Amino acid sequence: METQQNPGLPFMKMHGLGNDFVVLDARASGRMPEPGLVAAMADRHRGVGFDQMAVILPGENADARLVFYNADGSVSGACGNATRCVARFLMDQGGKSALRLATDHAVLSAEDAGRGLTRVNMGAPVLDWAGVPLACDVDLLHLPVDGDPVATGMGNPHMTFFVPDAAAVDLERFGPAHEHHPLYPQRTNVEVVQVVSDSEIVLRIWERGTGITLASGSCSCAAVVAAARRGLTGRRVRVNVPGGQLEIDWREDGVWMTGPTAHVFDGVWRG
Question: Which end of the chain is more exposed for a tag (fewer CB within 10 A), N or C?
């Protein structure tokens, strides 16, 4: 039973292509979760279950500010699908068709893309070793790692491998083996990419601090940036992930991501 001593913590459960989130609207309270609370809520057996958590805070020079957490309670600088989900919630709540969201990476523009889709500019990719960040100065297009991956920063670090068959990769082993590579002092997201054409790829994802996910906005952006820089695709690409499809468009003003969102339910955490 809800009491004065434990009024509970209201939350929203959302997802983009099965990449699921708990969203806390802390604009009024300013309450930030402790890492232990994040991890407890993330537990899919004893908690709510999610890939990432997003906390909405008041924004300066933006409609709101977002802080992201991985399922293990660690902070993440970016989460593209969560950004789209929160953007859709705030646009619907405020009767807007566009807004700006501040993150640790950049102030991101979001807009209604029509047909129930939401589009977010994830900002310019980080293409210098210190910004990714990496442990030392190396060629980001050809990392000195078996498999010849590419390094990209999208507000969080990424290591992208190009493979003949993405489905054949044992991601349960491959992902964690590279997430903790010493070249990445803050760990890294790991992507395996199968190029279908110059405008389409298949992507599988291991997210830092979370594991295998059905989709990831920042990983999709990083994969397209890596593929385009390698000359394997153009800059506008359809990304097929296990949860569905995202459209990524690397423009002069940033990497735009378009896809669906879902507000699944509202709840109160009393753990």
Answer: N
